[in-house]
Design goal:
The protein is an alpha/beta fold and about 210 residues long. Helix content is about 30%, strand content about 20%. It has a seven-stranded parallel beta sheet, with no helix packed on it. A three-stranded parallel beta sheet has the order 7-10-13. Strands 2-4 form a two-stranded parallel ribbon.
């Protein structure tokens, strides 16, 4: 292509798991024009058979590990909506742990089962925006993320956790009770739309 490509966006695209999908990432890995990517989006993409793309998050996480990404720290925005992964916690943990310049992450409509763990010895991870709207989550995951925000390992200024689907019994109540025990001083805006709460839960949320 010649000129540097800074934005690479795929919306509602269909790829072949055997050819076109892996070829995209081979091009990214081996062509210099992609070594300045600032924004990468692959939202609601499927295979030609209507199935989820094979190891989509693994392919993207390999971009994070490229020398140019770590050296230039130009990778500011990642969005992968509905990846089909059984558990996106590991991917998010890696995205937060590697210093590639990420500032905005959108992982709407995904599943998060495992807790994340961000080392306090590394550079603090700071995001202007993190969106986990309409995700399936466990309390272990949510509590680990908010604990990281509370102890200063993770800074998030705008967080969208609207329309959560809890995989634990009494998940929302347990989560709201946990929130009473911590403070997230850097969190400026919280979107919590479409999370139905009863009277007792509402009291926990506002206190």
């Amino acid at each position: 292509i010649g000129k540097p490509i800074t934005h690479l966006h795929f919306f509602n695209c269909t790829f072949s798991n055997d050819s076109s999908f892996p070829q995209i990432f081979q091009s990214i890995f081996f062509n210099d024009c992609f070594t300045s990517i600032e924004s990468f989006i692959m939202d609601n993409c499927k295979s030609t058979q209507g199935e989820y793309l094979d190891a989509i998050l693994l392919h993207i996480s390999q971009i994070f590990c490229c020398s140019w990404a770590m050296e230039r720290k130009c990778f500011h925005h990642i969005s992968v909506i509905d990846s089909g992964s059984d558990d996106c916690s590991g991917f998010l943990n890696q995205a937060l742990s590697l210093d590639v310049g990420l500032d905005r992450i959108n992982l709407n409509e995904n599943c998060f089962l495992s807790p994340i763990s961000i080392s306090t010895t590394k550079k603090i991870s700071e995001l202007s925006f993190l969106s986990l709207r309409n995700c399936r989550v466990t309390n272990k995951f949510l509590e680990s993320m908010f604990l990281a925000m509370s102890n200063g390992c993770l800074i998030v200024h705008i967080l969208d956790i609207s329309s959560l689907r809890f995989l634990d019994d009494s998940g929302l109540s347990t989560f709201l009770e946990f929130l009473q025990t911590i403070e997230c001083h850097e969190l400026k805006t919280l979107f919590f739309d479409n999370n139905s709460m009863n009277a007792n839960q509402s009291v926990h949320f506002v206190n």
